[in-house]
Amino acid sequence: MLEKILLLLSLSLSVAEGLCKPGVGEAYKVRFSIKTALGDQAYPWNKNEMFLFRAALAFAMRDFTNGEEFGVSDIHPCNETQRVSFWFVVTRPNTMDLVDKGTVEMAIKKSRNRINGAFLLTDKTLEFDGIYPTLAAPVSPDTPPWLIVFGVVMGAVSVGIIALLVYPLVQRKLKKNMDADDEDSDEETGVKTAENGANDGIYNSTFSDDERFTQM
Amino acid sequence: MEKDGRPIWDSPIQFVLACVSYAVGLGNVWRFPYLCQLHGGGGFLIPYLIMLLLEGLPLFYMELAIGQKMRLGSIGAWTSISPYLGGLGLASVVTSVYLCLYYNVINAWSFWYLFHSFQSVLPWAVCPINSNRTGPTEECEVATPTQYFFYRETLNISSSIEENGGIHTGQALCLVLAWAITYLFIVRGVKSTGKVVYFTATFPYLVLFIYLIRGVTLHGAINGLKYMFTPKMAELANPRAWINAATQIFFSLGLGFGSLIAFASYNQHNNNFQNQAIVVSLINSGTSIFASIVTFAIYGFKATLNYENCLDRMRLLLLNTFDLAEDAISMDSVLEWTEKLNTTYPEQFAKIADKVREGECNLEKELDTAVEGTGLAFIVYSEAIKNMPLPQLWSVLYFFMLLLLGMGSMLGNVTAIITPLRDFKIMSRMSNELFSGLVCVFCLLLGLGFTTTSGNYWFTIFNDYAATFSLLFIVLIEVIAVSYIYGIKRFEKDIEDMLGHRPNWYWKIMWAVTSPLLLIGLFIFYIINYIQGGTPTYQAWNKELGESAVTEYPVFGQVFIVLLLVSSVSCVPLTALYAFCRKRKDRAYENRPSAVSTVSV
């Protein structure tokens, strides 16, 4: 009995190995760049990590197919290299039928973050050849931030311009009021002093010296 | 106020700072480093300094002298020198109007970039994602994110000057802001300008200094500095180096626009402008050299970064193709591994041979990409900034500096328009504020044309043609007029009257002989270049390829270029003709009553 089981297992293994052929059929290539991602804290790649990978992928398949009981033995890796890259195929639970590429791709896409998280890697450092990561949706605020800064600066400049334009008018008014008070007090004494508000008169340029121009 | 009611600077320092603020502009930052790189690095300083002595200093001195003596804007000043030469002033005003129209658009771009720096991720650092969320937008993928941000998001550029679209609202808003600030600075005339220049003239140096420290401490900056300072003396034999040096000095000092005459006209009669002229010219050249050190440090950083990224890409390519362990190839050993793998696995290598050849990493090539103008300021620099630590701070500092340089020059440009026009009695009836406001609104409305989708191509027309040829013509006539029509002797006496001593022989020889000859030479060279160059061309942005392509101007573009040139240059002969006709009419009127004509013409 035991021997029969052993025979079946070895047979299935060898068949499975036959299933996983790099670059052909339903096989996908995976590439890990652990040292790039983690630097000093990189963990070495060994059989345990491989087991984790198969478990994570089995989880992804279960999650996508909603219940089909994929196990670690349904993920068949092959052609492992020093780069830490290998090919793998997925078979349906308890059979030798390969799951097609499309399903595998969609399962991986759905659980990509979970698989990345299990290995402390990112979309860039755990690459599935041919499966493009779905990028995060861009965050667009209601008011673009540049408009806010623009509003502040524009407001400040407008206030500045209005202040510069209004200030002399206000000054002139104040002076007129002051001179009007002086005028009242002067009229009482009956002495006519300098004309009000004419202390800094407007220069009439018509009477200025035009003879600077070259004589013809 | 002086006794004739003309406003004056509060102190001579304000005048010097105004001239510095005007002369030190964007050209010092983005044109001089380019020329330096083009003409053999440090060696370019030799023709540059020689031209400063032969041409820059004397002409600068002359314009200041005229302004201070005549105490009028360019139109009035030249009419005083000779009634036939009023057209010179008018040509200066027309050229200044053209300059004002397009120069403030650069300030609008600086504002746009400045405001966009207040984000956690600089918008030109990453590509926006396409609608499928599978990757970056197509255009951004073939070009770089910085180019995409400039051409698509800032300019929304069309593919040629013929295609037009609507106004880019963001740009238009920034242009309104730029003109509002310009108005704020000039609304009270010399009183407000005089205060503003304390800031606009000095703050850019602070930023340049900070950038110098930051720049030289960047990784790889030394490569750029070495590249700049290794002089390639062979370039000195190239006449183009000398011509470019002469043109650069000429345009960098801002001669011929009438701004210097306008600024000097607000001086006190005895102001010592001789020393001030020397100081400002030296500061201007010194700033150019200072700015190129900063620029080359940044170039070196950017080139080294690109080179290392290239090496890294090669390394990854090799690792992935040959499935070697990650730490087998390090950055330094990429090249030797390429050789090794080529010999040991030739067929596998052949598959990626194309990619290897395309992505060949060459530091010299990265440094050689000489860029000038808006491309340098807004694309190359922003690319370097995004890679610095704390990029938002550096971005804000940099664009704020560009703004100060640009606004400082705008002060001079707008003053060059307002001062001569205000000298006319009709205009002086309008209040200062209203007149300045009208000028600003007028330039703003016309400038909105540069914010359309094809606006950048019109901008290039103005940038290349509006102020180059006409200025040469104007300054040439100016120096000939002062030396030969007004007379060196009279000019000497005027200067003695103002300064208390006559200009020495160096100045007189330059005015009478060297500068006119140099300018005639430049003038002829420009004409020959224009004729030989064939149809004028421009760089059109191709969004499918993600790069600029050289395209010829259509007929209406060429006609417009000719109009630009003719409209300013023709002011001189037309006004002379007008003055001549008027004189004849007046004399004819004088002669009529007397029966016997004894008046000699």
What's the Cα radius of gyration of chain B? 27 Å
Quickly count the helices of chain A: 6
pLDDT averaged residue by residue of chain B: 87
Low-confidence stretches of chain B: none
DSSP strand count of chain A: 4
What are the main properties of this structure?
heterodimer; A: 216 residues; alpha+beta; Alpha-Beta Plaits; 4-stranded antiparallel β-sheet; 6 helices; 4 strands; 8% strand; B: 601 residues; mainly alpha; Amino acid/polyamine transporter I; two-stranded antiparallel ribbon; 2 strands; elongated
Short description, anyone?
The complex is a heterodimer of chains A (216) and B (601). By secondary structure, chain A is α+β, with helices and mostly antiparallel strands.
Describe this structure in words.
The complex is a heterodimer of chains A (216) and B (601). Chain A is α+β, with helices and mostly antiparallel strands and 216 residues long. Chain A has six helices and four strands; from the N terminus they run αβααββααβα. Among the domains of chain A are: 16-128, 2-Layer Sandwich (Alpha-Beta Plaits); 141-175. Helices cover 49% and strands 8% of the residues of chain A. Residues 190-195 of chain A have low confidence and may be disordered. By secondary structure, chain B is mainly alpha-helical. Chain B has one domain (12-321, 361-483, 519-588): Up-down Bundle (Amino acid/polyamine transporter I), CATH 1.20.1740. Chain B contains 25 helices and two strands. Chain B has a two-stranded antiparallel ribbon with strand order 1-2. In chain B, helix 3 crosses helix 14 (273-322), helix 4 packs across helix 23 and helix 13 crosses helix 19 (391-423). The longest helix of chain B is centred in the middle third of the chain and has 50 residues, at 273-322. The chains are: A alpha+beta (216), B mainly alpha (601). The interface between A and B is large, with 38 and 44 residues.
